[in-house]
Amino acid sequence: MSLIEIALRLILAIGLGGLIGLERETREKPAGFRTNILICVGSAMMMILSGLVFQGKETMGRDLTRIAAGVITGIGFIGAGTIIQARGIVFGLTTAATLWAVAGLGLVVGAGFYLPAVIFALLVIITLILFGKIEEKFIKKQLYHYELKTKKPRELAIHIKKLASSMGITLEELQLTKEDKLSAISFSFSSSKEREQEFNHRLLDEKIIELRID
Hints:
Elements: H1 3-26, H2 33-53, H3 60-80, E1 84-86, E2 89-91, H4 93-110, H5 114-138, E3 142-150, H6 153-167, E4 172-179, E5 182-191, H7 193-203, E6 208-213
């Protein structure tokens, strides 16, 4: 294997991993752009290295399979770090599954299967974007009403809007009222219970003095 071929495989791994990471980054997920790139290119390098080390040996195929299995198993530790349990609801599983898929993508690139790697990457992106919209549209939803009290209404309102936008949540009836020394921000949105729990967890901010959810 020439240095040019190695470089091309690594560059492809960076590009494909970056595309998937970009989607995660725009949704402000724990594992974003650089994380997905590093996992993809790292997995590709492990596969390339194993190919160089075991090149010409009779057990090469078996050794490559063992290396691939080790990478996939190892990525589970990183994926576990993105899973959060709060109030009986577990979220972050999609991010963990994405990291597992990106590691597999890196192995495919590192093994030199370029076209399957591109197809695989496109399918992952389609699953995250298109299927995510379908899930959000048709999944069972509930209406949640939030009322927060704060001393910094402007900063908190901006934070809420950015968070909702990143999660694909449409806020309704966003209102800001003054109450003595505090300001109250109220809004509503329709969402699944799991997504509302994630929104709640990510909303936590030191600017919030009081929070009520109906």
